[in-house]
Amino acid sequence: MWGFSIAFKGRLGPRAMGNSCVTGSIPGRSNQGQGQVSNGAQTTFKWTIDGFSSLLDKGNAWTCSSVFQIRGLNWYLRLNLRDTKSGDKQEYVSLKLVLAQRHVRSDKVVEASFKFLIYDQSYGKHHEEHQVSHNFQSTSTTSGTSCMIPLTTLKEKSSGFLVNNCCILGVEFTRVVVAEGKDVSEKLFVQKINNICSDPQVYSWNIDDFFLLKNLSISPVFELCGHKWFITIHPSGQDKSGNYLSLYLSMKVSDTLHENSGNLVELSISIKDQETGKHRKLSGRCQFSKNSPSWGWPKFISLEDFKDSSNGFLLKKKCCIEAQIAVIGSSKIE
């Protein structure tokens, strides 16, 4: 079975809608990332994938980095090693930059300029995308997908991008409107291991009367894969707009867990179709830690679709939410 072990190294200096899993907040706990302020003109986050082939074998899916702090804001990268373009049969290495949900405000825009990097470990001729400027706000927390390089090109020995089954990706910020920042570096070590819970385990939360739920409601605490969890539901949406239902999975982080440790989790949340079995299911691969204990979807499903009895999600006031969890690795900041 496959597993991931993640370590973070380097000097400290300058961290949606649809099917994208985002980090969220939970009652009484902060998602503030690790970081220190510096006055550097440029700030960089470096992500080392050690055991590249093991992650590649996971297929066409997005993997989230840890949450890192730059210029007083929390961000994370999303990586797909087998991305595709419309009308193109080639596979691409793609990156996205995401502003963590807790820093998104309806009255605030975060203007950022940055570029993605793939490091040439042999000759120093790094591959970099042209500089991108993006306004991060409540309607756009994720930068556009950047298909940086064909997978075949990255794997060519002469490129220097993949050495000893290891590649190094990154994002370099040249401008963020708010606060000061720091350089941060992360190492993702991927290997075959047998001592983690890579087989999915399932919990079902049966809600007898959906309309009795408060604006924010929490499931009973349950234990899967050796950890305690709970589901958070916002019946009228996290933004209280009344248009969407929001769902998050949260890890009940033990006081014994070091603040620089975490777990890489493959998660799925489903709302069960009680008639035809055509469930509403969204999945993600995210890192849970004391800094980011909660991940999910602020717009999991429109309330119109959820309440439509023909869809089978809500029948006679009853609904069932299912969480499927596999812990496929661990993380550590060194």
List keywords for this structure.
6-stranded antiparallel sheet; 11-stranded mixed sheet; 4% helix; 22 strands; mainly beta
Architecture overview:
The protein has helices at 52-56, 151-155, 303-307; strands at 2-8, 22-23, 43-50, 63-64, 68-70, 73-85, 88-99, 110-118, 127-128, 132-136, 146-150, 166-176, 184-192, 201-207, 217-218, 222-224, 227-234, 244-251, 261-271, 280-289, 294-302, 319-333. The chain starts with a strand and ends with a strand. The protein has three helices and 22 strands. With 334 residues, the chain is mostly beta strands. 4% of the residues lie in helices and 48% in strands. β8 and β9 (127-128) form a beta hairpin. The model is unreliable at 1-19, 25-41 and 179-183 (pLDDT under 50). The longest helix has 5 residues, at 52-56.
Give a topology summary.
Blueprint: E1 2-8, E2 22-23, E3 43-50, H1 52-56, E4 63-64, E5 68-70, E6 73-85, E7 88-99, E8 110-118, E9 127-128, E10 132-136, E11 146-150, H2 151-155, E12 166-176, E13 184-192, E14 201-207, E15 217-218, E16 222-224, E17 227-234, E18 244-251, E19 261-271, E20 280-289, E21 294-302, H3 303-307, E22 319-333
Parallel strand pairs: 1-22, 3-13
Antiparallel strand pairs: 1-13, 2-21, 3-12, 4-6, 5-6, 6-7, 7-11, 8-9, 8-10, 8-12, 14-22, 15-17, 16-17, 17-18, 18-21, 19-20, 19-22
The portion of residues assigned to helices is: under 10%
Q: Any idea what the shape is? A: globular
**Class by helix and strand content?**
mainly beta
What is the average of the pLDDT values? 78
Short description:
By secondary structure, the protein is mainly beta. Helices cover 4% and strands 48% of the residues. It starts with a strand and ends with a strand.
